[in-house]
């Protein structure tokens, strides 16, 4: 469900207050008038107010649905490229009509992915995560997964996305690619030690190709920012 912006919310509050004052006036200030007539007038007015409120909500939702393309294009037009390998991808992370925007810094080990959403006619950065310019997500389930792997040490994060808000629900760690014979192997999920099988199950559940979508891999390489390939891609998305 879309959220009303501040301006629209103020309009709704003012209108509802007006309805309340009118009802008080009809009930206490016109005792000589017919009670049934007063109630009918108040009910009719309330119905008209509710109609206008619903029309305002529908208008805002339409703007939110149709305005995301221009908003994302404006963001990308001013986006500063550091590696000149930046790529763009759209995907439905949460379950609404507006896709999220993924921007990968590139293929290098240190490259992250920025994930943006469009709520209340505003583009918002949800989070920056990932390594080698890659992340995973579960389509329309509100789940986003990022990782960082280097020198045999891996850190993994799982986030929930709901109404433009991000919450970390899992984090995992392992040094098994680095420990070798001289150091103890560590495997943890949310700070609790786990077995190799438990960590493998976690990895398969959130990062397995059969269960989640990996962005900026061979199957979903995205569209280059420097060559402006993204413009036709975004303008034609969903059509």
Give me the secondary-structure category.
Answer: alpha+beta
> Helix amount, in percent?
25-40%
Oligomer state of the chains in this structure: single chain
Order of H and E elements: HHEEEEEEEEHEEHEEH
Q: How would a crystallographer describe the biggest sheet?
A: 7 strands, antiparallel
Average per-residue pLDDT, rounded, comes to 83
Low-confidence stretches: 11-17
Please tally the β strands and state the result: 12
Molecular shape? flat
Quote the distance from N terminus to C terminus: 22 Å
Rounded to the nearest angstrom, the radius of gyration is 25 Å
Note the beta-strand portion.
25-35%
Figure out the total of helices: 5
Q: Can you put this structure into words, describing what you see?
A:
Helix content is 37%, strand content 28%. The chain is of the alpha+beta class. The strands form two sheets. Strands 10-9-8-7-6-5-11 form a seven-stranded antiparallel sheet. Helix 1 runs antiparallel to helix 2. The longest helix has 43 residues. It is flat, with a radius of gyration of 25 Å. About 3% of the residues have low confidence.
